[in-house]
Q: What sequence folds into this?
């Protein structure tokens, strides 16, 4: 039975070999904007939950 300690390293090596599949800049920018919108929405949601208590 192979050791499971090196499996993460093997997976990381395989994933790093696929350098040719780059995402367009617009897609990365869209993901950043989505994360910012979610963060902005999370703050009032948490605050309203706090105020309801």
A:
């Amino acid at each position: 039975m192979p050791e499971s300690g090196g499996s993460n390293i093997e997976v990381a090596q395989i994933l790093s070999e696929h350098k040719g599949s780059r995402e367009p800049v617009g897609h990365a920018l869209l993901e950043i904007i989505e994360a910012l919108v979610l963060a902005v929405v999370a703050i009032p949601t948490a605050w309203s939950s706090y105020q309801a208590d």
Notes: Residues 23-53 form one domain. The longest helix spans residues 25-52. DSSP finds two helices and no strands in the chain. Residues 27 and 49 are 33 Å apart (CA to CA).
